Amino acid sequence: MQAHWMRVASLADFEQTDRRVVSAGDRPVLLLRHGERLYAVDNRCPHMGFPLEKGTVKDCILTCHWHHARFDLASGGTFDQWADDVRAYPLEVRGDEVWINIAPPPDERERLLRRLQQGLERNIRLVLAKSAIALLDRGEEPSAAFRTALAFGTSYRLAGWGQGLTMLTCFMNMMPHLAPEDRPRALFQGLDAVAMEVSGAAPRFKIAALPPAPHAESERQPLLTLKRWFRQFIEVRDDEGAERCVVSAVRAGATSAEMADMLFAAITDHRYIQIGHPADFANKALEALDQAGWDPATGAEQELAESVLASLVRGIADASRMEESNAWRNPVDLVAILEGAFEELPAALEAGAAARESGLRWQGRVELAQQLLSDNPYANVGALLAALREGATAAQVAGATAYAAALRIARFHTANEFGDWDTVLHTFTFANAMHRAVLRVTSAELDRMAPDATAEERALPLLRGVFDAAMSVYLDRFLNTPPARIPQPKANGAAPEALLAELPALLDRQQQVNQAGELVAQYLASAGGTEVEHAAPLLAALGRGLLREDRDFHTVQAIEAAMSQYQLLAGTPEAAHVLIGAARYLAAHAPTVRAAGQTFQIAERLHRGEAIYEE
User: Fold this and answer.
1) How far apart are alpha carbons 545 and 606 in whole angstroms?
2) pTM
3) Amino acid 614: pLDDT
4) Which end of the chain is more exposed for a tag (fewer CB within 10 A), N or C?
5) pLDDT tier at 1 (50, 70, 90 boundaries)?
6) pLDDT digits 0-9 by tens, 404-442
């Protein structure tokens, strides 16, 4: 650190007083005489900016007179962790002149990340908001803070991956769609979600990988063997044995696609487990590692990958299984229908491969989705199998199913009970997770978990989950009885930006569900369509609307999954339906108290140096 000394006072200035505030660059600095020494600290209390000159000093402890935060006058260190350390300046007396070194500290980034860690550990919302704002204002990418929270959340919650880490990843995924000024708020919301969920929880202790085998041809068990063992352990709900298989697979160099193969094979061995949460959590964990920079080829973030993926296992092993549910057994045995369909999947995939080789290109997404909305489960399963035989890829069938699930939200009637929004949401996020998992597995060049399978054959176990999602869409049919009318994109003469400007006021009023859907349809018509260049401002506006509210797990899931599906549907009429559904869901759950937003606004004002203690 290069010194930058500045003359700020003389000893004579302290003959009648023990303190003096001086300007040092852009900061007010408090010079304070205590005993035989002079000290220099930032005059703004790091908690909420109150002037420390109004505080008291006793036994070299400076106490702020607003919230009574206490600081070691010599080092600036606080005794109250919610307050943060106050900056202390090196001071020299040269003759009768007082000089301080105002050079910025060299380790500011490390200090901010350390403070963020403390905010996570102690669940201090204001500290997290300040850290998010300061880090991004320095030009830092949000990935460092994200990795810190990811490691913290998977290490200090015995139950493993949950809602907090899912929301953290959702907000990270939404970052590219948000306006730059909204990204610190998104990071803060994710950090706060993790801190709140972990607070008071017992820590996790990771199980080590299997040791190398000294006499085997390979030191590590083959990935195919680990996958088989993992499924066996999950079958009997042995989470410890299953976790050791996961950690061992990562240690053996398994790729993201191979881990998806392993995890989702077990998740789909049973029907719609835990109403879709394990699938969504597994998808989000893999997306989180994408964001964190996990690279098995170089070993980057390997320990983090082990911790993250191991944190999923307990939730998979302990999950409820819908074959044990009355709704999936009566009055129609949906499980029996599905099991019969699963027997036909290999032949359907083989027929589909032949159809594609002959030049056929399947284009039946809309027709298949409409069929899945019907009240005939036999016909719905038959339509899925027919699509595969006609050349639809596993990803196309998964996409059509996710689109059908999105239509359930777009057509959700407000005559239903409010809690039923969650029912259609669970199906949609599960369908989105299965779609993304199929894309991950089938796009990989190599899968040692299924070494002899084609890309489409690798998706065979995952297609069971896609069929589960389709059956859940069927079960949700009563929530579209009657169906809400999906507004058609029709310009009303208003400019696109003027329409978006109406969204915040609309979300300030309760139950503006249909109005929100109409606004989205009108915007897309006025903007020129659902292509990325036209829809990007709408996605940013929906993200901003979400971030204004206090977090609701399902609303965060709904908006993020809609953005995920939009990316795959951009430029099609179906993309409009997905965004209409997202806006309707958001409007149904707004406004909230917005307490988190108030904390964030305080942190923003403090970062700008505003005196929030004044009128």
Assistant:
1) 23
2) 0.94
3) 78
4) C
5) low
6) 999 999 999 999 999 999 999 999 999 999 999 999 999
Closest alpha carbon to 342 in 468, 209, 153, 487? 468
Q: Determine how β-strand 91-94 pairs with β-strand 97-101.
A: antiparallel
**Over the stretch 475-489, which tens digit does the pLDDT of each residue have?**
999 999 999 999 988
- Which residues face 51 on adjacent strands? 44
| Token code pair at residue 237 | 């709900």
Question: Are residues 38 and 91 in contact, defined by beta-carbon separation less than 8 angstroms?
Answer: yes
d(CA 17, CA 109): 37
* Helices and strands, counts by H and E, the chain: 25, 9
CB atoms within 10 A of CB 162: 20
Block residue for tokens 């989702």: 264
Give burial (CB, 10 Å; 0-12/13-18/19+) of 355. middle
**Burial class (CB within 10 angstroms; exposed 0-12, middle 13-18, buried 19+) of 146:** buried
d(CA 395, CA 266): 19
Nearest to 345 by CA among 382, 376, 372: 382
Report CA-CA distances (Å) from 32 to 42, 132, 327, 529: 11, 32, 72, 64
Residue type, position 198, single letter: V
Is-contact 589 552, C-beta < 8 A?
Answer: yes
Q: Which residues contact 151 (CB under 8 A, 6 or more apart)?
A: 304, 307
295: which strand partners?
A: 300
For range 122-148, the mean pLDDT? 96
Q: Where are the alpha helices (DSSP H) in 373-459?
A: 377-389, 394-410, 421-442, 455-458
pLDDT tens-digit readout, 540-588: 999 999 999 999 999 999 999 999 999 999 999 999 999 999 999 999 9
